[in-house]
Every structure is written in C-alpha cells, then in structure tokens.
Amino acid sequence: RPPEQAVLVTGALMGAGDVIAQQLVERRGLRGHHGSRTAKMMAIGFCFVGPVVGGWYRVLDQLIPGTTKVVAVKKMVLDQGGFAPCFLGCFLAITGAMNGLSVEENWSKIQQ
C-alpha cells in the first residue's frame, strides 16, 4: 500500500479502537463519550504511529530481504527487541504530552 493510505488506515483504526474502548469496555454511552480523546488518538495515528511504523517496516524489509521463515524470525527479533521498546516509550511520551501531563509526570508514568 502507498504510505499515505497506510497512514490514513492507521489513524482510522486508532480512532475506531478508542470508540470501542469507550463504548464496549468503559461503557460510557453516547452522552459520556469523550470525542476529544478519540480525536487525539486519531491524530497520534495519523501523525506518529502510521508514518513511524510504516517507515520502520520499509527499513526492516531493506535490512533483511526475503520471505523465508528464518527471515521472518530475524525481522521479529529486531522488531520486538529493538524497535518496539523505543516506539512504546515515544508513544507513551506523546500520549502523555497530548493529555497535558508535565514532563515529570510523563517520565514517571513511562518508568512505571
């Protein structure tokens, strides 16, 4: 898929995931739904998750070309061992900042 399409799909999926979380898990109902929270999640998907993850998978495909099982395992090890921890820290920092946490509060939450 073109990168632009992947970014749009990522934002839409993150927004849909937040709607599902608020309606089915938290049972907020339509009146209690936090639209701004959903919009923030979509923005993070459009501006951060989509471009970063899409770019990472392009780099990973260039670093380790091929389609064998061994190649898949190598990609998984690099992804989960190297990329995922860094990505998660950045994701949590961005989410915290968008939710108004101070730098100190955000760092404390990331350490937890």
From TrEMBL:
Location (main, coarse): membrane
Compartment(s) where it occurs, according to its Swiss-Prot or TrEMBL record: Membrane
GO cellular component terms listed in the entry, alphabetical order: membrane; mitochondrion
Membrane-topology descriptor: Multi-pass membrane protein
Gene Ontology annotations of biological process type: regulation of mitochondrial DNA metabolic process
MF (Gene Ontology): channel activity
Entry keyword annotation includes Transmembrane: yes
Keywords, comma-separated and alphabetical: Membrane, Transmembrane, Transmembrane helix
Keyword Membrane assigned: yes
Transmembrane regions listed in the UniProt entry: 6-25, 37-57, 82-103
Superkingdom of source: Eukaryota
Similarity comment: Belongs to the peroxisomal membrane protein PXMP2/4 family.
Protein name: Mitochondrial inner membrane protein Mpv17
